[in-house]
Amino acid sequence: MDTSLEIPLSDLPLIGETSGERADAVRNRERILCAARRLFDERGAGCTSMDDVAAAAGVGKGTLFRRFGSRAALASAVLDERERSLQEHFIRGETPLGPGAPAQERLIAFGEAMLDMLEDHAELMVAAGSGGARFVSAPYAVHRLHVTLLLGAADPGCDAEVLAETLLAALSAELFVYLRDVREMPLERMKAGWADLVQRTIPAATASGSF
Amino acid sequence: MDTSLEIPLSDLPLIGETSGERADAVRNRERILCAARRLFDERGAGCTSMDDVAAAAGVGKGTLFRRFGSRAALASAVLDERERSLQEHFIRGETPLGPGAPAQERLIAFGEAMLDMLEDHAELMVAAGSGGARFVSAPYAVHRLHVTLLLGAADPGCDAEVLAETLLAALSAELFVYLRDVREMPLERMKAGWADLVQRTIPAATASGSF
DNA sequence: CACATAACCGGACCGTAGTCCATTTAGTAC
DNA sequence: GTACTAAATGGACTACGGTCCGGTTATGTG
To answer: Which residue has the least CA–C1' distance to nucleotide D7?
Structure first.
């Protein structure tokens, strides 16, 4: 069983601590993140190569890949703040997204929050999840666990793990981009579709428990 | 509304007809498909580059891309026979996959057939659908229509189009590979998960109509 | 301050998907 | 058979993600 509920992407630099990383390394990470944010925002992720990011950050390509490992990981890092905020909301935030509401309502709210994030950062999320990277990412592990727990609370005895994976598939960035850009589907219809799916999947008005 | 129910991938050379394609073009297409099938089968799609295919087929790289357009399209072409067979079965084949059974049963059978195909050709199907190519492919259009019609038959008045997309997401090749290779989930559990999802989604024992 | 060393740097390099275009060739009309 | 044309060819070329490694620098220690 996967217990990685901690907040992902490691750093969390305790106040004043250097976290063992050399000063130039920290400086370059900031430069890169800053340049990546700017370029992804200005021209879109699809039109920004890793060379572009390295050049804009004033570092070599080797440094860029040493710091972030891959294009998908860089995209994830840029999304990190937003992802943390989402997690904060569904773990400790206000109802119905946070604890307190029935599982079904929380699950609907979770999907709607994901769709909002997709609406804002679709391109970046496609990049972050490309090549199967989505499924092995820390955020996905957290989402999976959250959905699994909600499903288990709403319907004990069901195969919540499998059901969670299949429901999360409906929130994939690639599907979202296709529905929005090719099928020109409005966000509200997608949200309604998600709510409909959830309502069909689990019973209403079951307490979600205390996690 | 998308009406592309015809069998995809065009050729269908009527007996003796040349279909307007030059003889050398036809010969090279066959060579390429043959080489691609062999290489994909021998070393797996992931270890076979387009250069490899071109070299094995004894043609230039330009010819390969002129004939097939992209790596994803080549993979689709290699899968074409199997895909046609699947379509044949769910359109005109025996119950419960084919016409006659209630919509719910047909939908479960459809997912199981898809999972069987994924079990046999996962790598190739990942390649065929990479970069969002899945959603704009002819096979996907056929699957979407099929599922949409089944959902509409089982529950008139629901938003069958959106529901179809979300259900099909659960049958994506990338999810399958992740569940099988990373999570080491047995095929039977995935099939049970699909059946469970469908049973939760639409009511049992509604006739599927006559399409 | 001088030194040792581990961490870091950057850009040359690789393999791959996909494009371009000068050249060749299959089919057609006479 | 010859001449013509549209189609097809193939390999050089580009852009990109990712790796490698010789040179450099920050940092702790004596």
So the answer is: B22
Entry pTM: 0.90
Residues of chain A with pLDDT under 70: 1-19, 206-211
Determine if the peptide bond prior to A96 is cis (ω within 30°).
Answer: yes
Count CB atoms within 10 A of the CB of residue A57: 22
Task: Give dist(CA B58, CA A38) in Å, integer.
Answer: 46
CA distances from A30 to A18, A37, A69, A207 (A): 14, 10, 15, 43
**Protein contacts of strand C with Cβ less than 7 Å away:** A 21-22, 24-25, 27-28, 58-63, 65-67; B 18, 22-24, 49-51, 61-62, 65-66, 69-72, 131
Q: What part of A 143-172 touches B (C-beta under 8 Å)?
A: 158-159, 162-163, 165-167, 169-170, 172
Across the interface, whether the CB atoms of B179 and A163 are under 8 A apart is answered: no
Q: Which bases of chain D are under 7 A from a protein CB atom?
A: 7-13, 15-21, 25-28
pLDDT in tens, A138-171: 999 999 999 999 999 999 999 999 999 999 999 9
Angle between helices B187-201 and B103-129 (to 10 degrees): 130
Q: Helices A61-68 & A71-92, crossing angle to 10 degrees?
A: 30
How far is it, in rounded angstroms, from Cα B49 to Cα B40? 10
Amino acid letter, residue A94: E
